[in-house]
Amino acid sequence: MKFKIPLISAIIPVYNCERYLSEAIESVLAQTYHPVEIIVVDDGSTDNSGSIAKGFGARVRYYFQPNSGVSAALNQGIELAKGSFFAFLDADDLWVEDKLMHQMAVFEKDPDLDIVFGHVKQFYSQEFSEELKKRISIPSGVVPGFFKGTMLIKREAFDRIGLFEVRWRVGDFIDWHTRAMEQKLKSFMLPRVVLKRRIHNANMGIREHNARIDYVRILKASLDRRRKM
Q: Which residues pair with 143 in a beta bridge?
C-alpha cells in the first residue's frame, strides 16, 4: 500500500501588495516538499495584486473578498483549505526553499507535536528610507520566529483553538498564539531559518501604528480568560 504524503495548505492573505506578492508565491512554489496547495485571499486590493495572483494559473487558488482585514482573509483561506497541515505567509515575506521539508521531518520524528516554528531573518526592502532605518531597527542575526509565517500546524490542532479573531486590526497572530498556549498546544522551535521577513514602508505595523492599542486589549482578553479558567 502506497503511503499518502500529507497535503499542506499555504495561505497567503494580500492587500495592495503588488510589489512583493509574486516573490512570496514563488517562494512557496520553490518548496522542496510536495504536495502544497497555494491559496491567495485578496482582501479587497485596489492595485494589481489580483492580476498577479491569477497570473500563476492553476498553481494558485485565488479568492477575492471585500476589504475585511487580515484576520478575515486568513479565516477565508482556512475555510478553502483542503490540507491536513496549515502554513501561512504574508504577501511581502519569503519562505526559504526547504522550510516545509524540514518542518515535516520534525513532525515525523515526534508525531505528538502540534506546531513547528522556525527562525527568522529580517531584512530591509531596497526602497526602505534611511530615515525609517534610524527609527526602526532590526536584529542583525537570526532570531526564533514566533510568527505565523514560520509556523506549520496540524489542521486538527488549529481547529482546537479556532479561527483568527477579526476584531483586532493588528496582533492577529499574537492573540491566536496566546490562545494556543493557554490550551497547551505542543510546539517545537526548529533551529534554522525558515522565513525571510521583509521590512518596508508599508508594513502593517507601520501602516496601522494607531491601532497598537489592540496589543493591550489582546493581553487583557488573555488575562480575563485565565481568570475564568
A: 120
> The cell 482582501 sits on which residue?
43
Q: Which CATH number fits domain 8-228: 3.90.550.10, 3.40.50.12780, 3.30.450.150, 3.40.190.10?
A: 3.90.550.10
Q: Where are the alpha helices (DSSP H) in 30-129?
A: 49-54, 70-80, 99-109
pLDDT for 179 beyond 60 = yes
Secondary structure letter of residue 63 according to DSSP: E
The model's confidence at residue 176, banded by pLDDT at 50, 70 and 90, is: very high
Q: Check if the beta carbon of residue 117 is closer than 8 Å to that of residue 190.
A: yes
User: What is the distance of C-alpha 146 from the center of its chain?
Assistant: 10
User: How far, in Å, CA of 33 to CA of 35, rounded?
Assistant: 7
Taking the model in full, what pTM does it have?
0.86
Name the 3-class secondary structure at 110: coil
Cα distance between residue 154 and residue 84, in whole Å: 6
Within 8 A by CB and 6+ apart from 39, the residues are 9, 10, 11, 12, 60, 61, 63, 77, 80, 81
